[in-house]
TrEMBL record:
PROSITE patterns: PROKAR_LIPOPROTEIN. It comes from the Bacteria. Residues 45-140 form the DUF305 domain. Keywords: Signal. Residues 1-20 form the signal peptide. Pfam families: DUF305. InterPro entries: DUF305_CopM-like, Ferritin-like. The keyword Signal applies. Coiled coil: none annotated. This is DUF305 domain-containing protein.
Length: 146
């Protein structure tokens, strides 16, 4: 493969990420990090392209990473299952608050244990965004007549 073609392949994920001009800042940060990782892997020759999934294998058991998040995941699922409401709207808000609380708890684990600056930046963005959205959902009140 020519150097020019490698450079184009490496730049493609970054160009695609740049085309997404808005949306959730956390999702944007995750897309950017993924694009950078994909570009680096293509340039280094460790990945032949997006279709190469040879490095993706299931772990034999819970990894240290899985264990770090086990308690926060279990608590999020417990809170989501317990959340309810009289209407679909009320139940949605209650369950999403629990879901966002779980995201904040997992991000706090990442901040506590990760040393990767990009992961720490994304975790802080999750905390900031999800905390703001929790406050917005808690402030929501059903429209008159519901």
């Amino acid at each position: 493969m020519t150097a020019r073609r490698l450079a184009l392949l490496a730049a493609l994920p970054l160009m695609l990420a740049a085309c997404d001009g808005g949306g959730d800042p956390v999702q944007q940060a995750m897309r950017e990090a993924s694009a950078k990782n994909q570009a680096a892997a293509v340039v280094e020759g460790t990945v032949s392209g997006p279709e190469d999934h040879s490095a993706h294998t299931a772990p034999a058991g819970p990894t240290a990473g899985d264990q770090a998040f086990a308690a926060s995941e279990a608590e999020m699922h417990r809170l989501m299952a317990a959340a309810s409401g009289e209407t679909v709207d009320q139940a949605y808000i209650a369950k999403m608050i629990a879901h966002h609380q779980g995201a904040v708890a997992m991000a706090e684990v990442a901040l506590r244990d990760s040393r990767d600056p990009e992961v720490r930046r994304m975790a802080q963005a999750v905390i900031d965004t999800q905390t703001r959205e929790i406050a917005e959902m808690r402030a929501w009140a059903p429209a008159a007549g519901e």
